[in-house]
Design brief:
76% of the residues lie in helices and 0% in strands. By secondary structure, the chain is mainly α. It has one domain (4-279): Orthogonal Bundle (Tetracycline Repressor, domain 2). Helix 2 runs parallel beside helix 9 (144-154), helix 3 (39-60) packs antiparallel against helix 9 and helix 7 packs antiparallel against helix 9 (144-154). 45% of the residues are buried.
């Protein structure tokens, strides 16, 4: 992988897309069908800041990436892209993202984006090398985009944005735990305590199920606080209940690796579904 494709890979496009998707959902919920020119700069700024954060993460994790089959061919791990060039480019992109949010959106969104950037690139990066519970820290910056999208419209913190943030944070924990389960051998080889769950598999499954159940509660809370209507609740509750049922089957799973892969894949369906449910929550009854 060379040229512009290598630099694009450093930014982890799939993660950037996920951040843009949830930011758009939060924005649409807050806008409630009203046309506003702020959407484009809000999503552009979010994408640029997220790309910069992913690039920094790739830089700090390049030694770890070299020890894992799945990641050993990443551009920074192989040296295809130099650390200096990557950071110069994504430093400019991150700065541009902050500038776009500051000029065309609002300072609250800047604060949310900057806080998520620092928590992901510093807090989570340090914690995952030292703690088996670092995924909880990683869930916080992962949930920030939906809050940023909402606050791009409202410009304040209210009960709705708090519930949105909690919903996305709760989604993150089972999602990344599932990755740790089905890729356990790779993380063990890399020496990452945050992602090694074989020695505490039952406790990890219990944590996942509890978060799935709490996610359903948060979906109900979003309707109770007036943030979204019944349609949003029905969508989120339907996919959330199916996710929880799949999680509960883990206690009887014969092959944890296969089960973890199924949970991971279905969690992606959940993320798309809840983004849709959030986005239409302010428009449909």
């Amino acid at each position: 992988m060379r040229g512009w494709r290598a630099y694009l890979a450093v930014a982890k496009p799939s993660m950037v897309l996920a951040n843009v998707l949830t930011a758009a959902a939060g924005f649409m919920l807050a806008a409630r069908g009203r046309a506003t020119f702020t959407l484009a700069p809000a999503l552009l700024g979010t994408a640029l800041v997220a790309a910069a954060a992913c690039a920094v993460n790739n830089l700090t994790d390049r030694e770890i990436d070299r020890r894992m089959p799945r990641t050993r061919n990443r551009p920074l791990a192989t040296g295809t892209v130099s650390a200096g060039r990557a950071m110069a480019l994504y430093g400019l992109l991150g700065g541009a993202g902050v500038a776009v949010l500051a000029v065309f959106v609002n300072w609250l969104t800047v604060a949310i984006g900057t806080g998520a950037f620092l928590l992901y690139t510093v807090g989570y990066a340090l914690a995952k090398r030292r703690s088996a519970h670092a995924t909880v820290i990683g869930a916080l910056p992962g949930a920030a985009s939906v809050a940023g999208g909402y606050c791009a419209v409202r410009g304040r913190i209210d009960a709705t944005v708090v519930v949105l943030f909690v919903m996305l944070a709760l989604w993150q924990i089972p999602h990344f735990a599932a990755i740790a389960i089905y890729r356990g051998d790779e993380y063990r080889a890399a020496g990452l305590p945050a992602m090694i769950v074989a020695e505490r598999m039952r406790a990890t499954k219990l944590e996942m199920v509890l978060c799935m159940g709490a996610f359903l509660g948060a979906a109900a809370a979003l309707t109770l606080v007036g943030g979204a209507g019944i349609t949003s609740l029905v969508i989120a509750a339907t996919v959330g209940a199916a996710w929880l049922a799949l999680g509960l089957r883990g206690f009887r799973a014969v092959d944890d690796t296969a089960w973890g892969r199924r949970v991971f894949r279905f969690s992606l369906v959940v993320m798309v579904a809840i983004s849709v449910s959030i986005g239409v929550g302010g428009i449909l009854p």
